[in-house]
Specification:
Blueprint lengths: L1 H25 L22 E3 L2 E3 L13 E6 L4 E6 L10 E5 L11 E5 L5 E9 L6 E2 L4 E4 L6 E8 L5 E8 L7 E2 L11 E5 L10 E10 L19 E6 L11 E3 L8 E2 L4 E3 L12 E10 L4 E7 L3 E3 L10 E10 L14 E3 L5 E5 L6 E2 L3 E8 L4 E10 L2 E9 L4 E4 L1 H4 L4 E11 L4 E10 L5 E6 L3 E3 L2 E2 L2 E2 L2 E3 L5 E6 L5 E8 L5 E2 L10 E11 L8 E7 L5 E7 L2 E8 L4 E8 L4 E7 L5 E11 L5 E5 L6 E2 L2 H5 L6 E7 L2 H6 L7 E2 L11 E10 L8 E7 L5 E4 L15 E7 L5 E10 L8 E6 L1 E2 L4 E5 L7 E11 L4 E10 L2 E8 L3 E3 L5 E14 L2 E8 L8 E7 L2 E6 L10 E3 L5 E14 L1 H7 L2 E3 L1 E7 L17 E4 L15 E6 L2 E2 L31 H4 L3 H5 L1
Parallel strand pairs: 9-15, 17-23, 25-31, 36-41, 44-52
Antiparallel strand pairs: 1-2, 3-4, 5-6, 7-8, 7-10, 10-13, 11-12, 11-14, 14-15, 16-18, 18-21, 19-20, 19-22, 22-23, 24-26, 26-29, 27-28, 27-30, 30-31, 32-37, 33-36, 34-35, 38-39, 38-40, 40-41, 42-45, 43-44, 46-49, 46-50, 46-51, 47-48, 47-49, 51-52, 53-54, 54-58, 55-56, 55-59, 57-58, 59-60, 61-63, ...
Length: about 1000
């Protein structure tokens, strides 16, 4: 109720604030006439009204139903009040609950109804005792086992109820046919919610299984297990009672489990006994555990033990070695009834000591290559069961455990039981009656295999192969030594023997070697300390002290040319190659074969480390001037710097020498001396060989001289190419020019290729085609030297639109006074670009104008006429128009002049020149028409000022489509005219009429008079 009032107060406070706020808003609301104009769309704040032209607030909707346990609210969505019952706003009492039901007639002032909680009491079985309270037996895990007298048993219960006092208690057991009996010890009604009570002591109980259950009834008559038989009562309210007053049967058939397979009743571990489980009535009881007594054979009790299982293991610590034992057992059931003791079990002997075993070796030692005998002894304190032996040869069992007479002599047949050289182990094992065992072994060593001799050859050496008619095992030199090493896996080596080329047999003492080249056949073998003799080994070695030979060849571009040496004023024959030319070194060795080829480079230097003399052939070099002059008339000196710059990087780990593995390519442009040598697989090293060559990787030098001094950028019809090309090493092989397009987008395209011809000195030239169109180009001039090195230079070329006369044939007009005045000219014209041209003709001889002549200009099938005989003559010039296509070529025009007598008389006979010029004329080339509309189509039009359309008398008209184009005629339109001041019309469409049009009619007579 308090919370409801708090909510009502907060709601009232909110409404007061809202009314005040709305009042402020109302002060600025616009004027109103009807109530509906003031509706704000909200249901819960009431209906607004219009008073005195202003909107006022309506009465707020009141949803209070005057019930404390309901939550009152206004539903703005459905425009209604909602009163939601809240059970949690009602009071709570123990053993019941309230619900909010304001419409129920039994509801209290707060709108709440009380509901009684119907809960049953709870009873559980606790324990059983005699009627005097002794020998208490708890109900554990739902069971009680007792052996009391049949009229001396009392079952105890506990009952409780959470809400009201207990009114009645009862109990029942199986066999009563559902009959419930009142319990004793109950205090009485209306006094306790919980109590302890028990069964009647006069009940009769027989030996069997019972289900005993209790129940209670509270003051509200709630009763557990109501209308249930004992079989139907929940197990939690009951306990199973087993009445057993009989002893278990005597334990029989006690058996000893012997884990071994030796003599019965002899054991070497704690003995284990087992027996049959005896019967016990009734079946609900059964054996709970067994009592075991452990005796010595003389009847002394050693140990008493309890076990739940029907077996017993004697504790190890209670056993004495060499003693025998037996046990007795009796059963105890769950009601503590004890059976009779069993008779004695079988006696068991305990023995955990191993027997003793020993093997005695033969007198001759432990190494054999034939049969031998082994002596052995065995002993045990309680006696042996059996003896066995086993033989292994190199860890592989040859004879598995086999029974043998104890303390006997064992013969070992080596060929049968130890056929493999190595370890021959004899094992002996003795087992006593309790299966204790002991074993021992003895290692004997069998050696029937002769030793092995290995021949060791020192370096230098190389594995052999079939050489001529010999199959050589090793190639060696005179520095190679041969040693023999005997190894024996058995007793050890004795002596090694050898012969050379079937000579005298010698005892090996120290390493041997051979001085001379040749074939050597060696035989050798060894004998061990047991006189096992190795088969003779054979080996053939070849002594080789000759070095290989290396040759050099060039694969690729090679050019032999004379080089002028200014310092000596000599032409030296020099080999030129490029970096793409490969130098191949080939080494041969007819004996063992080539292992490695090494090479290095030298380059010329003023401060070189090596000085060598050369003749006219650069491949021939000499260490002294005298050696050079013996074969050459003239010699010159070159100094060398050892190791070229790239050799120091590539071969620095080998002191400037490179191992030849693949063809050599040299990068540096200069003279080089290459030196090389090879080694065979025996390290026989060849003397170094050297040759000189020059690397030329650079293409010719090119300078392009375009345009020439005789050309301009415009007047170039046939593109001329002039370039200076030179190569100071091998010379020029060929030169050419390429013309490429230079587009702003896309890939360039080659449009012409032309070979250049050598002119004077280093100059090369050629002419390009005259047919290239206007545009930007790249002119590329290229040349290749005699080694195939190529170089190109590029310049930008722009071909402009142009028309000009290259030459005239004839160039002058020769007037014959007898034949009259006729002249013919042929103009050779270069054209590039659009092909319409104008041909202007001026005075002849500086006197006669075109109007005084008859003239015809022709070009193939087109011609134009000027002069006195033709209509429409224009004295200034005349146009000859060709096809509207681009022409890029050299073309011609013919000019024929007819001069009348008056003209001839004025200029006189003789040779006269003609003033003319030819130029491009593009205006007359018409483009393909693009149609604007379809025939018959119309559209609105107006040609007057846009701001006058539709003003005064002005209005738009209609334009029609004629042959694909708008006609340009706006039919029916009215456009502004000069204002007429007396017709009452707005003629100039400026929105003013007659005299009101002050700007136009202010000075008009009509307006002045008016």
């Amino acid at each position: 109720m308090r919370r409801k009032k708090e909510l009502s107060f907060l709601l009232l406070l909110f409404l007061i604030l809202l009314i005040g706020f709305v009042g402020v808003i109302s002060a600025i609301e616009p004027e109103c006439v009807e109530d509906y104009e003031c509706d704000d769309g909200s249901y819960c704040n009431g209906v607004e009204i219009c008073e005195g032209g202003l909107c006022g607030d309506g009465d707020i909707v009141n949803c209070d139903d005057k019930v404390d346990c309901t939550d009152d609210m206004c539903d703005e969505v459905n425009d209604e009040c909602v009163n939601e019952p809240r059970d949690d706003w009602c009071s709570f009492i123990e053993c019941g609950y309230y619900t909010c039901e304001p419409e129920n007639e039994g509801a209290n002032d707060a709108g709440c109804i009380f509901n009684t909680e119907e809960t049953e009491p709870d009873t559980k079985t606790v324990f059983a005792t005699r009627d005097n309270g002794t020998d208490r037996e708890e109900c554990e895990d739902g069971w009680m086992y007792i052996n009391f007298d049949e009229d001396d048993i009392v079952i105890n219960f506990e009952s409780e109820d959470m809400c009201t006092n207990l009114k009645q208690v009862e109990y029942v057991r199986t066999g009563w046919n559902g009959y419930w009996k009142s319990g004793d010890g109950f205090i009485g009604m209306n006094e306790e919610k919980e109590d302890e009570w028990y069964t009647d002591s006069d009940d009769l109980w027989l030996d069997e299984e019972y289900k005993v259950c209790g129940r209670a009834k509270d003051m509200l008559l709630n009763q557990e297990s109501d209308d249930l038989s004992v079989e139907e009562v929940d197990e939690d309210d009951c306990c199973m009672l087993c009445i057993d007053r009989e002893d278990p049967e005597q334990v029989t058939n006690i058996v000893h489990e012997n884990p071994g397979e030796c003599v019965s009743n002899y054991i070497n571990e704690a003995p284990e006994f087992s027996w049959e489980e005896p019967n016990d009535e009734p079946e609900c009881s059964g054996v709970d555990y067994y009592e075991v007594e452990f005796y010595l054979s003389d009847g002394t009790l050693v140990y008493t033990y309890e076990t739940e299982e029907n077996n017993f293991i004697v504790p190890q610590q209670d056993l004495v070695n060499g003693q025998d034992y037996y046990i007795k057992v009796r059963a105890v059931d769950k009601a503590e009834n004890k059976g009779d003791w069993s008779i004695e079990s079988t006696h068991v002997w305990y023995d955990n000591e191993n027997p003793e075993v020993e093997i005695i070796s033969p007198d001759q030692g432990d190494w054999f290559n034939d049969d031998f005998e082994v002596e052995e002894t065995d002993d045990d304190n309680l006696g042996l069961w059996k003896c066995e032996y086993k033989i292994e040869n190199n860890a592989e069992t040859i004879v598995d455990w086999t029974e043998i007479t104890c303390n006997s002599l064992l013969s070992v047949d080596v060929s049968e039981v130890c056929p493999e050289d190595g370890d021959c182990v004899v094992y002996k094992k003795a087992i006593d009656k309790a299966c204790n065992e002991d074993d021992t072994s003895k290692d004997y060593y069998i050696d029937t295999t002769p030793p092995v001799t290995e021949k060791t050859i020192s370096d230098p050496k190389y594995p052999g192969f079939e050489w001529m008619t010999w199959l050589v095992d090793w190639f060696i030199t005179d520095e190679t030594t041969i040693e023999f090493d005997c190894t024996d896996q058995g007793i050890g080596c004795g002596t090694t023997y050898y012969t050379v080329n079937q000579g005298v047999l010698q005892e090996y003492v120290e390493a041997i070697s051979f001085e001379n080249d040749g074939i050597y056949e060696i035989e050798f073998y060894s004998v061990d300390l047991l006189e096992n003799t190795e088969e003779t080994q054979y080996e053939i070695d070849k002594v080789d002290t000759e070095a290989p030979e290396t040759t050099k060849q060039y694969v690729g571009d090679v050019f032999w040319g004379l080089r002028y040496l200014e310092i000596f004023d000599l032409d030296v024959l020099m080999r030129y190659i490029t970096s793409e030319t490969q130098i191949i070194l080939t080494a041969q060795d007819e004996e063992v074969g080539v292992e490695e080829t090494w090479w290095t480079l030298f380059v010329p230097s003023e401060q070189g480390q090596l000085e060598e003399w050369y003749g006219l052939d650069a491949d021939l070099w000499y260490e002294s001037l005298e050696d050079c002059e013996e074969e050459n008339e003239e010699c010159f000196l070159t100094t060398w710097e050892q190791k070229a710059w790239y050799m120091e990087q590539v071969c620095e780990d080998n002191e400037g020498w490179c191992l030849y593995e693949e063809p050599i390519s040299i990068l540096q442009d200069c003279d080089h001396k290459i030196c090389y040598f090879s080694e065979d697989y025996l390290e026989n090293t060849e003397e170094m060989s050297c040759q000189v060559f020059s690397i030329d990787n650079e293409g010719p030098e090119i300078t392009v001289h375009n345009p020439s001094i005789f050309e301009t950028e415009v007047e170039r019809c046939a593109q001329s190419i002039v370039a200076s090309i030179s190569d100071d090493k091998t010379g020029i092989e060929e030169a050419w020019a390429e013309l490429w397009t230079d587009p702003e987008e896309g890939e360039p395209e080659q449009v012409e290729y032309v070979e250049l011809k050598k002119e004077l000195g280093e100059y090369w030239d050629a002419l390009m085609s005259k047919e290239h169109p206007v545009g930007d180009y790249i002119l590329k001039v290229c040349a290749e030297d005699k080694l195939g090195n190529e170089n190109c230079e590029e310049i930008e070329e722009t071909l402009l639109e142009t028309v000009f006369v290259e030459y005239i044939s004839p160039a002058l007009c020769n007037i014959d006074p007898e034949q009259g005045g006729e002249c013919d000219f042929t103009f050779h014209v270069c054209m590039r670009g659009d092909n319409s041209i104008k041909f202007w003709m001026n005075k002849l001889g500086g006197i006669i104008t075109p109007g005084m002549m008859n003239a015809r200009i022709s070009h193939e099938d087109n011609e134009a006429f000027v002069g006195l005989k033709h209509e429409g003559f224009e004295s200034e010039a005349e146009l000859l128009q060709l096809d509207c296509e681009e022409i890029n070529e050299q073309t011609w025009f013919d000019l024929h002049l007819e001069l009348d007598s008056e003209v001839v008389s004025q200029i006189g006979p003789g040779i006269h020149d003609l003033e003319y010029w030819i130029n491009s004329y593009l205006e007359e080339c018409e483009e393909e028409p693009v149609y604007e509309c379809e025939q018959g189509e119309t559209r609105d039009c107006y040609t007057g000022p846009l701001d006058t359309s539709g003003v005064g008398e002005c209005s738009s008209g209609t334009e029609s489509c004629v042959e694909g184009y708008w006609s340009g005629i706006c039919e029916g339109e009215i456009i502004p005219i000069v204002e007429i001041c007396d017709n009452e019309l707005d003629d100039d469409c400026d929105s003013y009429t007659d005299c009101d049009d002050y700007d136009d009619c202010y000075l008009d007579d009509y307006c002045i008079l008016d």
